[in-house]
Structures are given as C-alpha cells and as structure tokens.
Specification:
With 468 residues, the protein is mainly alpha-helical. It contains 21 helices and two strands.
Length: 468
C-alpha cells in the first residue's frame, strides 16, 4: 500500500532502520531495569517515610494514590485494546496511509484512555472526576460575570480571605477554569461532558506529536513511535484530570510550529503562537513548553515563523491583562498558596527524585530504554545542531534533540520545587514528547516493549485508586 509522502527540502534525510539484532538490547534492558529499581526504591523509601511522619502527603508514594486492588467495567475493554495494539500496532503503523494512521492512532488512544477510566465505572471514573471539592466545576456559578471574575481572580488565590478558590482553580491561571465555564455556556455542562472533553483533546495530542515528528525527523520514525503513543501508560491520568487537555493544547502548538517551519505556513505559525499563549494561561508551569518550541526552530534552522508566532502568542496575555487578570501578579500568590498547603509540608529531599520515579511509571520502561539511546546520541546531535556549517540534522539527531528538549523542560519543573508529587498527572505535556524516544529502539522486540508499556498502565489502574 502506497503511503502519502511530502516533498519538502527542509525535511531531514531518512536513515536506515536501527539494527534489528540483539546486540543493542542489553543496554536497553539495563536502562529499563534501572527505571524499575528507581520505582521500587521510591515506593519503599516513600512508604517508610510516609508511615513515620506523614509529611509526604501521599498514601502510596511516589504516586498520589491509595492501595485498592479492583477490576471494573472497563477491564475487558482495556485488556482488549492493549492486546490489539501489541499484536497489530507495529504492522499497522508501518502500512496504513499517513492520514489514516493519524486518525487510527487518535482513535486508539481515546479507546485506551476511556477503557482505563471506565475500570472505575462511568460515574467514578469520568463523570465525577472534575466535580470534586478541588476541581474547576465547583466554581462555574462564580463566573456569571466573566470580566468581573477575572478582575477579582487574584483576590481569592491565597487561603485566608473569604471565598478563596479550590486548590486546582487557585493553582492555575483562569484559562483552565474558563474552558469549563464556556463548555457550560454552550450546553455541555457537568462532569461527564468535562471528562469527555479532556479525554478527546488529550488523545488528540497523539496525532499532534506524530505530525511534529514526521515534519522534523521523517515519517519512518513517526510511524515507529505511533503504537507507543497510542498505548501510553500516562493514559491512566489523561482520563481523570484536566492536565490531559493541557497536554493536547501544548502538543498542537509544537506540531503547528513544526509545520510552519517546514512548510513555510504563516497560518500555522499564527495558530501555534495562539495555542502557546493559551497554554501559558492553562498552567503556570507550561511556559516551559518554550524549550521544545525553540528546539523546533533549531532543528529546522529557520527563524521565519518567529514574528507571526510571537504576534499571535502575545494576543492571549494582552486579552487577559486588558480584562483585569495579570499573570505576573498572580504567580507569586500561587507560590504562597502552594506553600500554605501540601507543598509546604512535602519534603523536597524525597520528591525531587521521587517525582522521577512517578514519571517512570507514567512513560513506561520502553521510554526509559529509548531515553538511554537519546542521551547516548545527544553529544553528536547537539554538536551538529549548534555548528553553523553542518548540514541539517539527520532524522535520528532531530528526534534526539526534540526528546531532549522535553526532558530538560521536565527536569526544570522538577528542580523548581513547585512540582512536589502528583507529577504523574501534572507533567503530561512533557511526557508526550518523551515517548517518541521509543522510535529509536530496534524494530525487533517492539511488541515486547509495547506489552511492558501496557502492563504498567494496567497494573497501576487495577492495583491503586489514583484519586485523579
């Protein structure tokens, strides 16, 4: 079956497939073993630490979860989706026409997320999640007058004054809450619609990442990453929090900039900038998405999209500021609110590395093995990209740089101390860009790695209650 190809001189040259033999497998397995050991140590140390004084503020560290072995209505569907992707995903990813592959990957990701969420049942797994006391839907009625609510938004961030916002509303810029206010205004109110919205938008990030990888590193590597993206372990949390929606928006911003840089599209550059601006008003930590965005320009060696991107991006803060909300005034208050709650109790000494154990569970051991290959290729990829007289990066070098940018953004968030726990949920916008590292793994063994990815998600979702 003939696939759709794009003739674009800015596209990196394709490279031969990675060796299919077993010679390179042992270091990958060692890396996966180190990841598993990190999780085991974080569980053991975290359990002892929490039991001794309770200051980790998490019942089953490094996850915000409680031990609760169970099955549910989504169990058969989740097992079926996992088995189907492991058995047929690699072959379909190689053979489907490109546009059909995008739709198939998106649909598969939605099926995976829905089935995992439905292990808890429709009400507990989807409809109730965004209606609990910490969530956005609890304050919809306080946004009847949106301009007035925005003007007074910062007055209710810190605990103390009457009517302070619930934790998630206070912990995010108002773009997150406004999304659910607008859904309510168009007749899609309530937890069920909010949950479905987050799942559909979160799953769409799979297609966005594939588009970006194809534009920057070629179709071969994008196709090899597709089954791993569709079967991502962090789908456990995509179906239960607004962070899946945030991840989808951020992913499309990067994908559109990649399209703008490789296809010289003014419209794509403006759309990317607009989405990046909106991303910054969904979460205070997501300006770090600027790192992968800048890496897109580094890989493509162009600054052509920068001016339209910035012009569009600045319209979002301008609109919010004119309406009465200033991001730079709200952020210091958010820091104060963070330390008034669990963030002021949770010890940095544990969470600065415990977060990485949670991230290991969220991205899976196959991604850890892929990251080993990414780090091994980083020196040559970085030197090639930064040298002005070198040719454009090869496909694998381009992918290495893109993954590395996401990893650096994640590490910056970790070191900031503003992400102590719950990173299995919060860091989804970064996880999306780590998973393409799996495309660097040898073709032989893909089904085994996919099985390991699915196993992590199924075990987590069936053994613990995640709370999100």
């Amino acid at each position: 079956m003939k696939t759709e190809e794009r003739s674009d001189s800015s596209r990196p040259a394709e490279e031969p497939a990675a060796p299919a033999g077993r010679a390179g497998h042992r270091p990958d397995l060692v890396a996966a073993g180190v990841g598993a050991l990190l999780v085991a140590v974080a569980c053991g140390v975290g359990w002892a630490w929490q039991r001794s004084n309770g200051e980790l503020q998490a019942q089953w560290p490094p996850l915000l979860a409680s031990w609760n072995p169970h099955v549910g209505p989504g169990t058969p569907a989740a097992l079926t989706v996992a088995a189907a992707v492991v058995a047929y995903g690699p072959a379909l990813a190689d053979r489907l026409p490109w546009r059909r592959l995008l739709l198939t990957a998106w649909a598969t990701a939605m099926a995976w997320i829905f089935s995992l969420a439905l292990i808890e049942g429709w009400y507990r797994g989807i409809a109730r999640r965004l209606t609990t006391k910490h969530e956005y839907l609890r304050v919809i009625d306080r946004f009847d007058d949106i301009p007035a609510a925005l003007r007074g938004f910062t007055d209710h961030i810190v605990v103390g004054p009457p009517g302070n916002w619930p934790a998630h509303v206070a912990g995010h810029p108002p773009g997150a809450t406004l999304t659910f206010v607008w859904l309510d205004r168009i007749g899609l109110g309530g937890g069920a619609w909010a949950g479905v919205f987050c799942i559909v938008l979160g799953a769409s990030g799979v297609a966005a990442v594939l588009i970006a990888v194809r534009a920057l590193a070629g179709e071969r590597l994008a196709r090899r990453a597709a089954p791993f993206l569709a079967l991502a372990p962090f789908a456990v949390w995509t179906g239960t929090s607004a962070d899946g929606y945030f991840a989808g928006v951020a992913a499309w911003s990067i994908a559109l900039l990649a399209a703008a840089a490789t296809r010289r599209s003014l419209l794509a550059a403006c759309a990317s900038g607009l989405l990046f601006g909106w991303t910054c008003y969904l979460s205070y930590g997501l300006p770090l998405i600027a790192l992968p965005l800048a890496t897109v320009l580094l890989i493509t060696r162009t600054t052509r999209p920068v001016l339209p991107f910035l012009a569009a991006a600045l319209t979002v803060p301008l609109a919010f500021t004119l309406t009465g909300f200033a991001w730079w005034e709200a952020y210091p208050l958010l820091v104060e609110r963070y330390y008034q709650g669990a963030g002021g109790v949770r010890p940095y000494a544990y969470w600065v590395w415990g977060n990485l154990a949670a991230a290991t569970l969220a991205v899976g051991l196959a991604t850890v093995a892929g990251l080993r290959r990414t780090l091994a290729a980083t020196p040559s990829a970085a030197l090639g990209a930064l040298h002005p007289r070198r040719p454009a990066p090869t496909a694998e070098a381009a992918l290495t740089l893109l993954v590395l940018a996401a990893l650096l953004a994640l590490l910056a968030a970790d070191l900031s101390g503003m992400s102590k726990a719950e990173t299995e949920r919060i860091w989804q916008p970064f996880y999306f860009w780590l998973l393409p590292a799996t495309a660097l793994l040898p073709v032989r063994g893909r089904r085994g790695w996919l099985g390991a990815q699915a196993g992590v998600a199924l075990l987590v979702n069936h053994l613990v209650w995640t709370g999100w």
